[in-house]
Design brief:
About 20% of the residues lie in helices and about 15% in strands. It has helices spanning about 1-35, 115-125, 145-150, 160-165, 200-210, 220-225, 300-305; strands at about 60-65, 75-80, 80-85, 100-105, 105-110, 150-155, 170-175, 290-295, 310, 330-335, 355, 365, 370.
Length: about 375
């Protein structure tokens, strides 16, 4: 088990090292592109929300804005309250120690943002995502030509157990983007209600700005995911399969070689395919990881635990991953369809994922929140 976890970490780090020289330039290009399009996303994280978990049940309501999309605009009201933040399991050292947090009430999207919804945004604004941008060869003369083309990482599972030994199942794919999540041979036909993926953090922020919303803090996200269940293993309780029922989309079988798809899905699933939690929120576990606004630091909780109750924590002022100190990362939550209970703790609400802000993947999406009293100023 330890070997598989260690190898997974090495695999991800290796992919990031391969593209690390590209990422810095993509950031520069992205800022220019966003500014030129009028969709510049603020880099001032002091106005973004951050934090973690739940013990008081929130009231469920619905907020709907005008839209031609069946799911677009549906939001759920989540009451604030105190809850226990963190995860005491051994494989979640960066979520230690468990400590008490208070969050104010907020509106949250009932579902992750879908391909259909993101398509409306792109059509209305002409926005180009990070993965769709071409890099300037003069800025990176030593980068292979194929790495300068638009693209992203895709999942490439080995064909056998033998091949999985030392095999990296992520690789850079030219042409991969939100429109082509698994590479240029894929498209969005039949995936309109699937969560949009291959979204870098600034791509999610641009959409949020257009909708008049924002990304949730880590505290808000997990409070909502808990659904009022205090210190439970999952969003629905302590049993992964209550009464033999699948509650979320995740990997069944021997990862990364065999996916038994006992939950009915080989990859991501349409939003709302599994039961909602007690707050009426769907896909808070599995399907796709979700961006939060918190910078990632593994020691952040140690600082918070010194206070009796932390109110509306906003995350650290800057990112720091000791394994990759030059790569800026934000916290991701919820796990994905690639999470197996044998190696991935992401199915637990307290588990802290992390992601390079300038990179998307086929297993990362997002949902948005809105403060109490905020109004939709523009109908989408």
């Amino acid at each position: 088990m330890r070997k598989l976890k260690l190898f997974l970490s090495i695999a991800v780090i290796t992919v990031l090292l391969v593209v690390s020289s590209v990422i810095a330039y993509k950031k520069t290009l992205a800022l220019k592109t966003d500014s030129d399009s009028g969709l510049a996303c603020s880099s001032d994280t002091s106005t973004s929300g951050r934090g973690f978990w739940a013990s008081t049940k929130g009231a469920v309501a619905e907020k709907t804005s005008s839209s031609s999309s069946e799911l677009s605009g549906q939001m759920v009201w989540v009451n604030g309250g105190e809850f226990w933040m963190g995860d005491a399991t051994p494989d979640s050292e960066d979520a230690h120690p468990v400590h008490k947090v208070h969050v104010d009430g907020f509106w949250m999207d009932q579902y992750p943002v879908t391909n259909e919804e993101y398509s409306e945004f792109v059509k209305a604004t002409g926005y180009v995502t990070v993965a769709e941008r071409t890099l300037d060869p003069s800025a990176y003369p030593n980068v292979p030509a194929e790495m300068l083309e638009p693209g992203s990482v895709v999942f490439d599972p080995p064909k056998s157990v033998e091949q999985s030994s030392g095999h990296i199942w992520w690789h850079w794919q030219k042409g991969a983007s939100w429109k082509h999540p698994d590479g240029p041979q894929s498209d969005l036909r039949g995936r309109e209600k699937f969560p949009v993926v291959q979204i870098a953090y600034e791509d999610a922020e641009a959409y949020a700005q257009w909708k008049g919303k924002r990304l949730p803090t880590e505290a808000e996200w997990e409070f909502a995911a808990r659904g009022g269940l205090d210190r439970k293993t999952y969003s629905w309780g302590d049993d992964l399969h209550p009464q033999g029922k699948f509650m979320a989309n995740f990997w069944q079988g021997n990862f990364p070689v065999q996916n038994l798809s006992e939950d009915g899905f080989q990859g991501p699933s349409p939003v709302g395919s599994f039961p909602a939690n007690a707050f009426g929120l769907y896909d808070m576990t599995g399907n796709v990881w979700q961006w939060t606004s918190d910078w990632y630091r593994p020691d952040y909780y140690k600082t918070l635990s010194k206070m009796r109750v932390v109110k509306n924590p906003q995350g650290p002022e800057a990112a720091l991953d000791p394994d990759e100190p030059a790569v800026r990362k934000r916290v991701q939550k919820g796990g994905s369809y690639l999470c197996s209970e044998e190696y991935c703790g992401g199915l637990r609400p307290g588990f802290r994922g992390k992601g390079d802000v300038m990179s998307g993947s086929p297993q990362v999406g997002f949902r948005l929140v809105q403060d109490d009293g905020a109004l939709h100023t523009v109908s989408k």
